[in-house]
Amino acid sequence: MDKANNSVVSEFVLLGLCDSGELQVFLFLLFSMLYLIIILGNILIILSVISDPNLHSPMYFLLANLSFVDLWLSSVTTPKMIMDFLRESKTITFGGCMCQILFGHFVGGGEMVLLVVMAYDRYVAICKPLHYTTIMSQQKCIGLVVISWTIGFVHSVSQLAMVIDLPFCGPREMNSFFCDLPLVIELACMDTYILGLMVNVDSGILALICFFLLLISYTHILLTVCHHSTDGAVKALSTCSAHIMVVVIFFGPCIFIYLWPLNITSVDKFLAVFYTIFTPLLNPAIYTLRNKDMKIALRKLRDHLYLN
Hints:
It is a single chain. The chain has 308 residues and is an all-alpha fold. It is 76% helix and 3% strand. The chain has 10 helices and 3 strands, in the order βααβαααβααααα. The protein has a 3-stranded mixed sheet. The longest helix has 35 residues. The termini are far apart.
């Protein structure tokens, strides 16, 4: 390859969600409102768990961590996308692109493992209720959260290591609103088939392992509830139904994007919007609207803020 073609790329061009000027103004207003709801909704959950002693339990500790992760996940790409709706030149620096990849996979991988931890918490609560406080101690909860962050970090670093030194000498345009590994790899001026396969396998295996662990946990829970239909078990199952909804709306798009053999840009864009914006938006609604304790805590927090 010629030296001239091995020039250092300083920025990439993001084509965004659409080309229509009028539609971009509408999307700017829509996603700005959705992002504000994401921020407020998840912060309210975190503050409610911290302020209400009745929510100082492993389940709500993990829920507060999930809200923190959702805040971070949406903030990796959404502010940049919102600002780009009002710009003609939708560029991102090489360093900014690498940061989006690093933090996106860090938070995404961590959330996958955290959802498994939350399923394990529900499994212990329903299948081994007499030993719940012993098994899910404060130290163990903190350790499980640290493990989820550690796995997310290792996953993101391994992904970034595959693309950080790639040579770029041709087109710089990505048909997306944020940087993601498959799109960056496509722009490299070398044969990237094996590399692309490794990237998809890395992300796909993590997603599938977490998804199957979740299936196993919730299958055990359902079998236990079917055999011991007590009021406590039914109440716990109601909580699990919210967890299952979160699992489906988060893992579905991720597995499709990284394991589906066909590259359909319009579908990939929709799914990317779904798991970066709508998942963090739906999580607060799912957990608060279906949880009596959370609704009481939110009312207490509202009254406290109103009085002050």
